[in-house]
Amino acid sequence: MIDPLETDFSRFVASVAFSTSVDLTLFEFRKSSSKPPDKWKNFTHPDGSIYFLNESWQIPVITDVYVDDDDPRRRLEGFIEKIFSYIDTYEVIMPAEACLVLEFRQTGKCGYYFVDHSTRCLFWLEEFDAIDTQDFLVHVRVKFTPPLVGHEMKSLYWLHNEYFPELRPFVVDALQELKDVLIHAVGDSLTSPWSNTPYNLDNLQKMLSLVKDIESSDSRGPGSAVVVYRLLHNFYHERLLNLHGEKGARLNVNQSIHPERKKTFIIKIVSPLLLFGPESHIRKLTEMSVDSLVRRHDWDKLLADLTNDWKEFALYATVLLNANVAFLAIQSVDDESAPGYRSPEQRASYFSVVTSIGAIAIGLLLARHHNTSLDPSFLAYRSASMLGLETLAIMYSLPYALLMWGMASFFAAILITCFDSGDIFTVVMMSLTCFTLSILLLWTVTVVYENAPFWQAWPFRAFRSWKRPDGVLAGEGRLRPSSRSKNL
User: Fold this and answer.
1) What is the DSSP string of 270-281?
2) What keywords are assigned to this protein (predicted)?
3) What's the per-residue H, E or C state across 287-343?
4) Nearest-5° angle of CA 108, CA 109, CA 115?
5) Residues 352, 409: contact at Cβ < 8 Å?
6) Which of 292, 361, 392, 468 is the most exposed place for a label (fewest CB within 10 A)?
């Protein structure tokens, strides 16, 4: 026997292979005989799967093994006999509301667990390492306390009820608990931009409306139970991830429960070469994948923003490519009087052509891959290390950086042509224009580095201490105190 949390089994991966040829006689016989073997009762999950219940043992036994077939049933009952023999041999006292669940794994082994409905938790007959077991406590690396593990136990308990919703009456207090959780989640999302709820506001409001419909319904079938239990499973699992009720609990979605990771030398070297394009991407990616937790709606919004940017860069690069082709077609530029020689403006334009093509190709490839084959798990895996996020940020900034370098080289080609013309008026006009443009560009870039109330332009802040006038205190929305104000 093995514990039920190993990854060789998935509920939504078919483990039964069906033949393409059908024996009509056999099909009609099985269709007319839907009653399972003696002592076994069958149920159909709202999703369509079949599970079975046997109440003839010491405690109820539940399984999704297809007991209509003799060989799997005999093999399953053999495992059941061994488990109850172990209980009798070691005189294990079972809870009054316990049940046993078994399932066959893809490896051929049989997994099991017990459920205690009175305490709403799962248990086993033997100890196993839950920290290193996949899909259990491996998601967080902290010092576990009983309450923290209890959140995940509650999550697994509701997951069990989601899988087998018809075996027990609908849990009414679960509905009230879920309603309270959703009300808090909606309020938190409305009042905080950094709410750590796993769903966006629109989905939360839909969930709350759905729960209210279930609450007001006179009859609550297995479909309603599955919805309630699944949501409770998800929210209790989020409590484990956010260290709910623990010291250092995660209160904001961008708050990490682990020490901050430092940037590597790679991003420090490459970022200036790419005109600091990776900086904005690494900041956004880091905020989205705190502790490798990526929310679906955040990922969808990131994809929409990135693909829109990449398509725009590809469009701009196409325009720049056409401009370079037209520039190279000018007779005074396309001077081949000296074989094997190209003028500086031609070389600059050639460089711009190559970077424009690179921006178009990389931008379209990134947009295609991210819209067809990548999901939030891609970013979660990348965020396992700082290097993974940094290389991803560098990749995302390539269309922008190549476009900017292409524009700069095309601008250089224009300047070389103008300054080599020998026309004084043209040289003076371009010199003044370039100087003015440089000032405007620097002014635009300084906006990114503003992180304090703006009382004067940044070049003058180091030379003179300006007196701040009375008025609203920036960032706090409170009237600054004045010497002329009177105390009330």
Assistant:
1) HHHHTTTHHHHH
2) Membrane, Transmembrane, Transmembrane helix
3) HHCHHHCCCHHHHHHHHHHHHHHHHHHHHHHHHHHHHHHHHHCCCCCCCCCCCCCCC
4) 135
5) yes
6) 468
**Secondary structure class of 59 (helix, strand, coil):** coil
Residue 103: which of 8, 214, 226, 227 has the closest Cα?
8
Q: What is the largest CA-CA distance in the chain?
A: 105
Nearest to 289 by CA among 247, 241, 328: 241
The phi and psi torsions of 122 (rounded to 5 degrees) equal: -110, 155
Closest CA relative to residue 484, chosen from 467, 469, 466, 465:
469
Q: Are 446 and 458 in contact (CB under 8 A)?
A: yes
**DSSP-H helix ranges across 373-423:** 376-382, 386-419
Between CA 312 and CA 175 the distance in angstroms is: 48
Q: What single letter denotes the amino acid at residue 257? A: I
Q: Each residue of 111-146: b (16+ CB within 10 Å) or e? A: bbbbbbbeebbbeeeeeeebeeeeebbeebeeeeee
Residue 6 CB neighbour total at 10 angstroms: 16
Q: In this structure, what DSSP letter does residue 83 have?
A: H
d(CA 389, CA 385): 7
Phi-psi region of 245 (alpha: psi -120 to 50; beta: other; left: phi over 0): left
Two structure tokens written together for 319: 């325009």
- 372-389 b/e (C-beta count within 10 Å ≥ 16 → b): eeeebeebbebbeebebb
Domains of the chain: which residue ranges?
1-128, 134-258, 267-422
> What burial letters (b/e) apply to 281-304, b meaning 16+ CB within 10 Å?
bbebbbebbbbbbbbeebbeebbe
